[in-house]
Amino acid sequence: KKRDAKPKHRIVAFHNAGSAESNYTNRGVRMTVENPFVVHAAERDAELLACELPGRESRRNEPRFLTLQAAAEALFPVLAPVLNDGVRYVLVGHSMGTWMLYEFLKLLVERGVALPAQLIVSSFPPPSIPFDERPWRPNKGMDDAAFKDECRTWGVNEVLLKSGAMWKQYEGMMRDDFTLFDAYEHTPMGT
């Protein structure tokens, strides 16, 4: 959601696997305080733009991307014109969102769009980490029980994992999201 007036600055956020833009824009079930991104934007006349991958929340019926590069390419024509309007901005990524942020940043650099004033990334290794050093087990070929165990190591809500109906609804998205980082192939900027 964009502000009506020109903001003083802008925050562009990329969500983690199994999540959505609401991770940044709403008060979550387990949060005891208002979302700090929303509070910051309101108090400092900032615009908060949270990206949402297809296959979740308001984009539930859209086909999911097969790669983070494809997701960044699809986002570029939507977001690049906004980022070239002279307003300083920050890119924020959490977990899998850090790698999508990286792919999007590569496109900004390659295509001459104004660069962010700051990058904020959390809870994920660099995109250049070799496959054999990644601190997780790839989900391809995992049965349901093994995949749920892998989800637990990522802190996925136990209610989701134990509820048959909820798990049925979210398992496909979770597997697709995990595949986005399981199969991710890093290419350095400028190559």
Total strands: 4
Helical/strand content category: alpha/beta
Largest β-sheet summary: 4 strands, parallel
Share of helix among residues? 40-55%
Strand order of the largest sheet: 2-1-3-4
Order of helices and strands: EHHEHEHEHHH
**Into which percentage range does the β-strand content fall?**
5-15%
User: Alpha-carbon distance between the termini?
Assistant: 34 Å
The number of helical elements comes to: 7
Mean pLDDT: 92
Shape type: globular
Radius of gyration: 17 Å
- Low-confidence stretches are none
Properties at a glance:
191 residues, alpha/beta, 7 helices, 13% strand
What does this structure look like?
It is a single chain. By secondary structure, the protein is an alpha/beta fold. It is 40% helix and 13% strand. It has seven helices and four strands. The chain has a four-stranded parallel β-sheet, sandwiched between helices. Helix 4 links the parallel strand 3 and strand 4. Helix 3 crosses helix 4. The longest helix is centred in the C-terminal third of the chain and has 19 residues. The two termini are 34 Å apart. 28% of the residues are buried. The model has no long low-confidence stretch (mean pLDDT 92).
